[in-house]
Amino acid sequence: MLIPLALLFNLVGLPGFQVPKNQSKPPAVSQKGNRNGKVFVVMYHHIKDGKNLMFRSATKFRADLNRMYKMGFRPVTVTDYVNNKMRVPSGKTPVVITFDDAHDDQFHILKDGSIDPKSAVGIWRAFAEEHPDFPVVGTWYVLPNLWGQEKLQRKKIEMLQGWGSEIGNHTVHHGDLRKMSDGTVMNEIAQMNLKLRKLGVPANMPFCPPYGSFPKNKALMKSFTYKGQTISHSSACQAGWCPAYSPNDKKNFTKYSLLRLHGNGRMYGIDWWLNEVAAGRCKVYKAP
Ligand SMILES: [Zn+2]
């Protein structure tokens, strides 16, 4: 590759700089940014030991945070991503960390009132204390169980929101929306939306259909009227296997079909895709 003339003049203009002999490639210009690069929307379910693809051990989850951090990723929410407002420092790469199903191992509070250090929130909070620029900012697609400690539901939502996270709707019964009538789909979506609003979640929250299975009438994921109330969602995501399109990629980006990738060690999971980034085969979004 030839060195672009402008770059060459810039470089040779620096005091004491000489273009090294035998160098045919320009130096990497990492500070340039890449606003069209791919965005990782990582999907976690259980954070504990387990065999199937829905599990990520606490140790592996901690290692994911560490590896992403070292590779320059910084957390944002789904809403930041779909609104193209991913405020990460120049040269850094946004990552959207999402959790589905509101399992107890994601957010558990111990009898003494402290956060279980083995739960996802406990692990992430500890990591964020050492790395304040990687706070607990993510999107939590919840079911009515809301992490399993009934009296602490509102408190947990407030804590997550206080750190910069957001809550999304994952329906009431976690059924396959594609197989339901429009009326049942509306019940599933609206009742959870209204429950979350009562718990302090903003009305126009993000939505995640169970199994990434869209209803036959896809418009229901966006908005409809239910018993006189407007039910609306700002985005909808899929389950997934690959990084998502940049919100600047007008041709491919769509708010109501966001791609995600699994937070696990299998093919097309987070390890696999981070290896692709490290090898230069997957170009990720980088803030200018
Ligand atoms: Zn789910």
Please give a structural write-up.
- The chain has helices spanning about 5-15, 60-70, 80, 120-130, 155-165, 180-200, 270-280; strands spanning about 40-45, 45, 55, 75, 95-100, 140, 165-170, 205, 225, 230-240, 260.
- The strands form 2 sheets. Strands 1, 4, 5, 6, 7, 8, 9, 10 and 11 form a 9-stranded mixed beta sheet that branches. Strands 2-3 form a two-stranded parallel sheet.
- Residues about 1-30 have low confidence and may be disordered.
- Strand 9 (about 225) and strand 10 form a beta hairpin.
- The chain is about 25% helix and about 20% strand.
- It has one domain (about 35-280): TIM Barrel (Alpha-Beta Barrel).
- By secondary structure, it is an alpha/beta fold.
- The chain contains 7 helices and 11 strands.
- Bound molecules: zinc ion.
- Zinc ion (ZN) binds near residues 100, 170, 174 and 210.
**Helix amount:** 25-40%
Number of domains: 1
- Give the total of beta strands: 11
**Helix-strand makeup class:** alpha/beta
Tell me, rounded to a whole number, the average pLDDT: 91
β-strand percent reads: 15-25%
Summary tags:
globular, alpha/beta, 7 helices, nine-stranded mixed β-sheet, TIM Barrel, 288 residues, two-stranded parallel sheet, disordered N terminus, binds zinc ion
